[in-house]
Amino acid sequence: MIQYIVTISKELVRILHAQALESHPLEVAGVLLGLDNGNHFDIRYILVNTVYTKRTKNSVQSAYDLEDSWEENSPLDIIGEWHSHPNASPILSRNCDLSDWEKRHNPGSDENTMKEGALEWIVGVFPTKRKRFQFKDRCYLKIGPKIRVCKIRVY
Ligand SMILES: [Zn+2]
Description:
By secondary structure, this protein is an alpha/beta fold. It has helices at 10-23, 66-69, 94-104; strands at 5-8, 29-36, 40-48, 52-55, 60-62, 77-86, 119-127, 133-143, 146-149, 151-154.
């Protein structure tokens, strides 16, 4: 079985966590930019959505597509998206994430906005007893009907 690996710097993980914390208890979302080498994705840059039409504890709807604002001639590709799960595990939710993903990754759908094989990074952010927060990260890749969990390597 092919193993899918995502590499990301400590600094970018720190930024993802900081954004998830700043928005807590609301969701936050954005776009992942980097290099896609087939089974190795290298995240180099993170965009954070700051304009929303609707944002709750378990959903987020961007007012416009960050993907559209990214120039096509950039050396970095849009390799996926990320969002936070306030007070929840970073597991793809059946009602929202999976159904949304089906629509957005389906070439036959009007709402198809993501290319095949795009990543979805989820940051779970949980309060701890001492009024601090802890984070759990998971990164998924959907190839056809299959969803794979990627191995995250932080450097
Ligand atoms: Zn989600």
